[in-house]
Amino acid sequence: MAPKGTSAFDFVRSIKLIHGAPSTGLEEHMVPEKGLSPPRKLSPIRSAAESSATDSTDTAASSWLKEIGLFCGYFFLQTGMGFMMKFVLSKVTVVPGLKGIPAPFFVTCCQQLVSFSIMCLVLLGSRAIGRPYSPQKISKQEMITVLCLAAAFSLNIGSNLLSMSLIPLSLSMIIRACSPITTAALQSMDKKQRTPSAPEWLCLLIGVVCAAAVTLAESGGVAGEASFLFFFGVAICVFSICCGGLDFVLKAKLGKGPKLNALDLNFYNALPVACFTGLAATVIPKPVSATWAARYIPQMTDLQVVKRIFQVNPSIVKWVSLTPKALTSSSSNSLQQISIFQAMDGLLPRLFELSEVTAGALAVQNEVFILASCVVLVALAGSWFLSSSGTGKAASFAGAFVDAAEHSVDEFIEEDFVSMGMPKEPHLEGGFQPPTVLLQSNSTEPYDFDNDNCRGQFLALHRPTHDSKLSESGRYRYGEHFKGKKRLWELRFRFQLKRPLSQSDLFFGAELEEYVPLSAATKRAMDLSVSGMRLVVGDRLYHSPGDPEDVEGERERPAITLPLWAFDQYIVTPEGEAPPELTDPDLPNMGHKRFGQLREYRRSLDALELVPGPTFTFCFWGVSRFCDVLQWQATGIPMFTPLDLNQYCGRPPLHFVLYTLTDNGEETRHLQSRKTYFFRCSFWSSLRRPGSDVVRHFAGRSLDLLRGTNKARKSQQSNAGTSAGVSLFGINLFQCCSDRPGEALENWDVVFSGLGAFVYNLYVTFMVVKLSPATSAFAGNFNKSAAILLSLVFLEGAAPWKTGSLRDFAKIGAVLGNIAAFTCYNVLKKRKTASKA
């Protein structure tokens, strides 16, 4: 309790001075409690004399349990926020093969709108209970400062979330643990602020060196093969901590100038931040995660991402806006100069005297926070060791020297294809030439292609011929389209030409890589199949078994090609108009069809001018009943089929092509030297995949998804006993971070709501103002360091005593070095403060 004759605010200042905590200047900004005199300026000697050391010791002792509970709650909230946002941005399964919601600005915009709405409800509620609260009015000049703060906050949060979607969570937190050095650098520009001493700068730089070491280790070393996305994510993370430093400086200025408290700041800041992030979400294209780049394009705006999500899984968007991120994990010291008590005054009932809690927190200073972090970390680590099996068996150090070859896989397994975005159900797979990503049949969106001659989109549809009941039921994607039709598959593609061409020189069809010897029976079956196709598409069908190796000169590849009018449907969209989507259910009713009007259809196609400008859409299914590509069989010929397609093509893949032929005198063969490809897509069945070298040739950017596959596999094997997660007192702590889209989303939707974000914001602010400026940076970074260790060990499997990886040793060592550096920094600050007091 404060001594008689002394206000609560005088008592707060006296306790700060006794224990070496410098005044923040906020004591003069606090609103006096009823019945207490306004704060008066006291000298350190008089304040210390009026305060009883015994009373402060008793207050400190009685506050220990409160402070430990507060800190543990703060730690779990802060750590949970980081895990949750990583889950949202890069791990949540939107649809099979598509992970994460790489829309950081959109997520931030939604959160700020929810936070502002809750703030309005709080203001209305305060009036309803007879304790009305109104935000403090600010001048135009102060509003400009608020807008600058909103811009810095938007860049800080948005870039932090963007980097989190591109790099591992542990690396993001390690880099953001360097935020004090950017804040110190910005504060040093202000002549009114004290410049850190040389030893303090050295401690801060040690933290930066540790973060650089982890970044180098994560990239695979100097000779590593880290992708562009990795380095871009690191750069964005560094940019975010610079914005975070500016965010801190502006908030400190607002705390000292217009005296805004936490509620006022949220009220004035939320809508501008929502506007800034909403604008960024609309106009700024950015690199997206590998799964999104593999399915769509490498760069997308947040608006494009959300549009795609609404098309494939609209229900997932409802809870994204409720995901809390009111404060980033690095902003534990960003609100230290804004008094939460001003926000609480006149709004919350006074259940206890605020001066007691404040004095107790300042009396124990940072020791209790360090102790609480250690207790929590030891408890979690101990529970993990106790719940794991075979912990006594250390992994062999044979894999310690990990290089770029770690990420290569000699032969792909089913898990690798799933990680590259392919579904587990049987389907068609393939890729373009030049390679972009792996393709799949019945995808939710078409795939983009671009070459020197044209650009466009492609979509392959196929019945589930492996399951006759499913095929007949129509309960699969595009099942309504196949209902009542005999076709087994359908190919759709649209393109815009980059140069004019003559359609008489244009052919489309299928070709193979090399000559395949055929037995007499297989050759007979093939001739019958070609004859059947010729009856369907006409005399201009071209078929060649190819030239064997004993043919001198250039050899022809095996091929079967058709004239342009062999397409079953075409649509011409004039330049400037939007072409129909390849996924449009009404597409079969558009344009021209060959069925029932072959003569008119052929005449209209012969008159078609293939020139740049218009968009041409073609669909092909006419010969599909003779070839079940999913089952990799020739079909539709009695007594001869089904036959394995490998008897025709030797081995997959099968190339679907569109090319022109140049005139070469009397040469009639379709030689490679005469071909100019406008489109080339290679296909195989997931039931009959080619070798891994062929897959790599066509996979393109999908191979980025395999980074660390071997490492993850080894980690899963070594941690087989802990695959169920970490259990503490019967609670599976990290089960929520696994890739389970259904159950996990529902649980997180309940626990982390917009209301939770608002409460978390106030709670963290309440904790931050209890820390003196000398300890706030250390406590926040110690918090992050503990969270980093948890993320490394439990989520990313980087336990060096199990994996034996030097990379994992570097990560853990850098985290411990970071803790040591900021411990030294805190000691130096504390000694200097004590000497001044």
From TrEMBL:
Residue span(s) of domain Domain of unknown function at the cortex: 434-684
Keyword annotations: Membrane, Transmembrane, Transmembrane helix
Domain Sugar phosphate transporter: 98-213
Localization of this protein: Membrane
Membrane topology of this protein: Multi-pass membrane protein
Regions crossing the membrane: 68-89, 101-124, 144-161, 198-217, 229-250, 368-386, 750-769, 781-803, 809-828
GO cellular component, one term: membrane
Pfam families: Duc1, TPT
Region (Disordered): 27-54
Record carries keyword Kinase: no
InterPro entries: Duc1, Sugar_P_trans_dom, TPT_transporter
Entry keyword annotation includes Transmembrane: yes
Record's protein name: Uncharacterized protein
Provenance organism: Symbiodinium microadriaticum (Dinoflagellate)
